[in-house]
Amino acid sequence: MTQHFPALLIIVPLLSALAVSAMGWIDRRWCFPLAVASLGGALAISVSLLAQVMAAGPIVYQMAGWRPPIGITYVIDYLNAPVLVVVLAAAFLNLIGAKVRIEEEFEEKLGAYLALYLLFLSGMVGIVATGDAFNLYVLLEIASLTGYALIGLGKERAPLSSLNYLFMGTIGASFYLLGIGYIYIATGTLNMADISNMMPQLMGSGTLFLALIICMTGLFVKMALFPMHGWLPNAYSNAPSSSAGLIAPLTTKVMIYAMVRLGLTIFTPEFTFSRAVLSETIVWLAVGAIIAGSLLALMQRRLSRMLTYVIVAEVGYMVGGFWLGNKTGITGATLHIINDAAMTLTLFMAVSTITWKLGSDKFEDLKGLFGKMPFTMLGFVLAALAVIGIPPTCGFFSKWYLITGGIEAGQWGFVGALLFSSLVNAVLFFRIFEIAFFEPFATGHGHHDHGPAMSEAPASMVAPLIIAALSLIVLGLYTGDIVTKLIQLAIPAGIA
């Protein structure tokens, strides 16, 4: 059975989506347990695959026994094994933590909503695991279409935000597909390993260089790299909180993973970084994303809206780190994919819990929140410290690699943008702490005897949030193992 684990990663949530949808018509009480069992099983499989990769090296699985270029190959290696665990763990924790909200908001559509949730995850997992460039596009569309629906199920402006996301997402996917077409013209295959093997003979190919630019443009749209970010703030802030808690931690990070995979595996580093003008341009785009995202976050008065612009800045971190083209920068970018997924998950779970209890995430409504919801705020504070980059949280270590990589590459604009963003993040989150702890101002500054009575959210919401928050410290403490035993083994030896 274990030899089929790479296929089961996608098959389990995919078939469970059909079962959950059917159960919605038969007995809705079984929908949620079935979805949780499915994600729990997939998470256990991903952990087993990670252990196998660390013990014996990469795993190559040929679907239905068909060899490439006819068949589709799934590859679990040092690069994607930890990403798979984080993707599935984030979806699992978010689903458990959002149970109360999902059952309240989608009581009559519970089967349909959970089926979309599982289908979205099937697409995300497939994107990370596939070794076929066209299959990545198919799975990208599965994730995108279900993502549009998950956002559009929200209230008020959510359907319009989803429509805008659909337009931009379709443009991004079309660019990627066009680029894959050029790759096929030049190589005659869609298997990533086969394309990589042909690259030494095609280093001067103008067709492949055009394919690289087009594919990357498509992925930049999908990951919301500034100035192609316009769809993201509305989509994530207007989505149902359970959908935002799934999509916000995963979508941009998986798209950045796809960028790393294309750059290292399909086009190879020698080709990807062969033109300094391209790398330089993208690094400066990343600098713009970091600065613009940080400044736009400062202008917001809603917590969820502020976090969406923090995501825009974080995308700049990872894109810039990768396109530095050195080992340290790529290590930092890849590590930040894992860390930022965990940080974003924790922040959005905290916001979901706060809005469920207060009915609002406006700054003025957060007064006295440390007294009312101390455990929720504990999770929020740990995530905020990680985003700022305070050790021993995981955010510090990936930022350290990114800054070091920028110094090694002589990209002082990128280094300055990272430091600027960290300072802005400190201002952003300490402003929230001030409102939630000190306001309303009174004798004792938050410690007076008659402070707000504790009124915490249910344990089913708070416990997964605390687990997610503690994972930020665990990831930080085990950064050395993650880097030396996984990420740096995935970076080709030719990268200095």
- N-end to C-end Cα span: 40 Å
Largest sheet: number of strands, sense, barrel closure: 2 strands, antiparallel
Cross-sheet strand order for the largest sheet: 1-2
Mean pLDDT: 90
Structural class: mainly alpha
- Classify the beta-strand content into a percent band: under 5%
- Overall spatial form: globular
In DSSP terms (H or I, runs of 4 or more residues), the helix count works out at 21
Number of strands: 2
Low-pLDDT segments, ≥5 res = 443-449
The helix fraction, in percent, is: over 70%
What is the element string, with H for helices and E for strands? HHEEHHHHHHHHHHHHHHHHHHH
- Rg, nearest Å: 22 Å
What do you see in this structure?
The chain is 76% helix and 2% strand. It has helices at residues 5-26, 31-56, 81-97, 99-105, 110-129, 133-152, 158-187, 192-198, 206-223, 231-238, 241-266, 268-272, 276-298, 303-323, 327-358, 369-372, 374-388, 394-409, 412-438, 459-477, 479-490, and strands at 59-62, 73-76. The chain is built from 21 helices and two strands. It has a domain at 276-496. The chain is an all-alpha fold and 496 residues long. The longest helix is centred in the last third of the chain and has 32 residues, at 327-358. Helix 2 runs parallel beside helix 5 (110-129) and helix 3 (81-97) runs antiparallel to helix 5. Its main location: membrane.
